[in-house]
Amino acid sequence: MSRPDRTTSTISGRPLGKTELRRIDAWWRAANYLSVGQIYLMGNPLLREPLAPEHVKPRLLGHWGTTPGLNFLYAHLNRAIMARDLDTIYVIGPGHGGPGLVASAWLEGTYSEVYPDITRDADGMRKLFHQFSFPGGIPSHVAPETPGSIHEGGELGYALSHAYGAAFDNPDLVVAAVVGDGEAETGPLATSWHSNKFLDPRRDGAVLPILHLNGYKIANPTVLARIPESELLSLLRGYGHTPYVVSGSDPAEMHQAFAATLDHCLDEIRDIQQEARGSRRKTAARPPWPMIVLRSPKGWTGPKEVDGKRMEGSWRSHQVPFADARGNDAHRAVLDGWLRSYKPEELFGADGAPVPDVAELHPAGDRRMSANPHANGGLLLRDLRMPDFRDYAVEVAVPGTGAVESTRVLGTFLRDVMAANMTSFRLFSPDENSSNRLQDVLEVTDRTWNAETLPDDDHLGVDGRIMEILSEHTVEGWLEGYLLTGRHGLFSCYEAFIHVVDSMFNQHAKWLKVTNGIPWRRPVASLNYLLTSHVWRQDHNGFSHQDPGFIDHVVNKKAGVIRVYLPADANTLLSVADHCLRSRQYVNVIVAGKQPALQYLTMDQAVVHATKGIGIWDWAGTDHGQEPDVVVGCAGDVPTMEALAAVALLRDFFPDLRIRFVNVVDLMRLQSEREHPHGLSDADFDSLFTKDKPVIFAYHGYPWLIHRLTYKRTNHRNLHVRGYKEEGTTTTPFDMAVMNQIDRFNLAMDVIDRVDRLQATSGSAREALKNKLIEHRIHVRAHGEDLPEIREWQWQPADPADPADPAE
């Protein structure tokens, strides 16, 4: 049903008196007028003179089709907020309804408060119109520049997950979440309906989903608008909702029907919460939460026809219903009639300010949806209460020894972070929290779960704080909504599958970049990723689980918002994690292994090393402060081990070879300080890697990224990087390294090949290294495990009688 005519509603009633009905309709008409004006006009905002070509923008950009429905909902939510003193934010999935949200913020006064130049008068209205989708102005969709928004509207699929993320641990908040019927066709949105199985009515807020069925996408009908209503309602009930339908196009009847339906839904939400919060039961039964299905015409209240073709109620109204109002007199006449149909003379005074009937139909202060502090989460953000990460230190008597699961150590630290912040910190993971060795957090909280539980289930509870659902999209959306409303969190994921949220990361990174330039936006807690089960240790999964390329994707974003860390051991990981959890306005990517691995630095040394982000490990090198013959660099836990093992081999073969060993924790230190805030100066970089000596670099990910970060460096021509090159399978840890030639034997041969003075004397050494590779291959395929000397390898100081000091 794409163009409803007769008004129908699941809930009957006419709760609006004549005055209230008139005022709501006036607000709606005013918001619609302002929305059309933003799309089309750059002058003559109140039509006080005949509409001329120069009043119309030369390029028309924007989306009208969804906007009137969004304005309709905004007006009714304002009425409910005022009547009930609700704490409400508005999340809209149809993000290109941006002109409506800007119009509402202007009508409420918030827009003029944060942008004083856009005054609430005729001149301010002209500027409001001129800036929309215009060079030097604002985007056409709901963006960070829009007061009241936490949801970037450029990409579809995340409205519900963002809304639920905002509601978690916000018991008094109601999130009105509009799902467009085009958005409803996306995979992320389809999964996010299940978020209600993770909501606790006792301590969380409420989400009121509103499925806005206007029938069309850009050029095609939408699926949910064209299936039988019985089928649609069965689908929504299956998701755990009680759906209420409001359908029609007559404004007066639709206002009454929607007001009655909204009141009914808010009463249900109140009753659900009161019952849950008054119950003595430890857990609250999951209720069927209410939701609304709003059927209204695409481009509602717009032109019925243009050039003999239907507009309202068709796909043609999705964007700009007619595009030549500047050069086509007939189209300009249609625009003039359209704008005047809203009767602007009744809505705006002589000075252009909204008349009292419009200006007063919104709540006061922070209760305005465009000014709600939850939509500017930095206003509410409080520092985490943090235990001292040094208390979780792993003892390292001799570097390069031991067998510690670094992320398990981190899990112990996170357990106590969680215990100290039980209303403002959550862990998020797609069913992998324990697999990623963070299970110690289960000592203080359960996995969040508000569906059926069985006796053998492991740590499930509605009051749990570990958010796990097998949808990276939904997990990411929850976390983003949680962060943007002023809380903290961490997302752990298998490294290969974090790519599922590549585009969501894009949107969040862009949000942070833009908000850094908006003075009234306050900093929010950083988006922290822990990537583990990484490319080098997929012993039982294989090629499908091997991809370190998320790092490459991340470093494409603006340097001011992204950080990448590759701690080589548990103590360094603890230091890095503490820093990331305390940080603001960044995306922090931490890559760390979960398998038993060697440990290198004491806690004091790890703090220094992580703070510097890069440094020489004197105990691992053989240059002893002299000019080196070669520099061996590394970033990542397995590359660090293989690089150290290569140094040990070279030390035995060539006792007089001077090797400098450099380890990188903060990947962006490799870039120039001119390109990234963490970048090294050329002088500092040259002091580590020299100006003219060969550099053999073992890197966790794709090798070309290191070249990209360092291509302007003096010694780049001598930089030789080994990393992952798309060779993998189900095999042993060391065989993975061999397949990609990042193993100790290949690294050692690479050094031999790059140091000229070794060429004449290296024949025996090269032969021995090649023989080891053959021996390895035969052994692995015969026994299914690495050679004992590989499995049991640990660092040995040059003089066993005098263990090396692991100091930096």
Overall description:
The protein is α/β, with parallel strands linked by helices. It has three domains: 365 residues, Rossmann fold (3-Layer(aba) Sandwich), CATH 3.40.50.970; 208 residues, Rossmann fold (3-Layer(aba) Sandwich); 176 residues, Rossmann fold, CATH 3.40.50.920. 36% of the residues lie in helices and 13% in strands. It is built from 26 helices and 23 strands. The strands form six sheets. The chain has a six-stranded mixed β-sheet with strand order 1-5-6-4-3-2, with helices on both faces. Helix 2 runs parallel beside helix 3, helix 2 crosses helix 10 and helix 20 crosses helix 24. It is elongated. InterPro entries: Phosphoketolase (IPR023962), Xul5P/Fru6P_PKetolase (IPR005593), Xul5P/Fru6P_PKetolase_C (IPR018969), Xul5P/Fru6P_PKetolase_CS (IPR019790), Xul5P/Fru6P_PKetolase_N (IPR018970), Xul5P/Fru6P_PKetolase_ThDP_BS (IPR019789). Keywords: Lyase, Thiamine pyrophosphate. One of its GO terms (molecular function) is aldehyde-lyase activity. Its EC number is 4.1.2.-.
How would you summarize what this structure contains?
Its EC number is 4.1.2.-. The chain has 808 residues and is of the alpha/beta class.
SSE inventory with pairings:
Elements: E1 8-9, H1 18-40, H2 67-84, E2 87-92, H3 98-108, H4 110-114, H5 122-131, H6 159-167, E3 173-180, H7 187-192, E4 206-213, H8 223-226, H9 229-238, E5 241-247, H10 251-278, E6 289-295, E7 305-306, E8 309-310, H11 329-340, H12 344-347, H13 356-359, E9 401-405, H14 406-420, E10 425-429, E11 447-448, E12 460-461, E13 466-468, H15 472-484, E14 488-494, H16 502-515, E15 527-532, H17 550-554, E16 562-565, H18 570-582, E17 587-591, E18 596-599, H19 603-612, E19 614-616, E20 630-635, H20 637-653, E21 659-664, H21 682-689, E22 695-699, H22 704-710, E23 719-722, H23 733-739, H24 744-754, H25 763-783, H26 788-791
Parallel strand pairs: 2-3, 3-4, 4-6, 5-6, 10-13, 10-14, 11-12, 14-15, 15-17, 16-17, 20-21, 20-22, 22-23
Antiparallel strand pairs: 1-5, 7-8, 9-18, 19-21
